[in-house]
Target: Putative F-box domain, Leucine-rich repeat domain, L domain-like protein
Amino acid sequence: MVPSKLNLKQEKRNWLDLPSDVTFNILNRIGMVDILENAQKVCTAWRKICKDPAMWRVINMNDIPRFGTRLFPIEMCKHAVDRSQDQLVDITASADVSAVKMCKHAVDRSQGQLVDITIVFLYDDDLHLYVADRSSQLRRLEMAHQFFFGCVKLTTVALMKFPLLEELNLYEIRISKEEIETVGRYCPMLKTLKANKRGYEGSLMRYNEIAIAIGQNLLGLRHLELIGNRMTNVGLHVILDNCHHLETLDLRRCFCIDLKGDLGKQCSEQIKYLKLPYDPLEDYPYIHVTESEYYNTLILLLR
Model:
């Protein structure tokens, strides 16, 4: 039976008439960009909801607009300028700047209620400190650097300002022994650490120093990921002997450890969820852009 025009008219719904808590729930499910660029401009009621600090307790920069499937980084722009050899007559490269400004604006709107933030590639010391100075309630911090070039590091001063931090997830971010010690001293509630770096960097001694620092300073860890770490059995021993609450341990691409003897037995007996060096890596959440991919994208940009 075909519904009459009268019935169709009666079934129309004015979305602006929804209860504010329902509208909040709906808007809270869309991305940061959609809220700032679209949703808050619909009407006064929606703008009021979008400015509610509770809307910004979680900030995820993964939905920042991308060039194709990749973020357009500041470093790529600088490289293009260098290649121009002073012949550059026109340039447009504002993606990073606007994205960082957008992230800072979202942090401001949280009014200190931010508990979870994900910063993907668009990272610098200033942004890290900006978040730290305004987010003492932060429970989860995730940072990822997706390009092969550049040395992206943590900011020690910022780490000292997260007393409630429970989860620190790092992908292709450089971390040092001193920063691990800082986390151990100033983030006593930390339960999860992911220090994943698929590209090798530094000596075996440096990786062992990081592993030893984890074992000596992060005794309350429940979950630890060290994908791509080049520590030896020395470093892993310290972790297992001191982190007695450890339930999850991810050792994929840790090719400098030998788990054939007693150490392997200790891992299997002590760790509930264990991933081994040669286990597949298809669930790695961030694509690390290789040098060839970078230059192919650069060539497209310069055409």
The first strand starts at residue 58 and ends at 60.
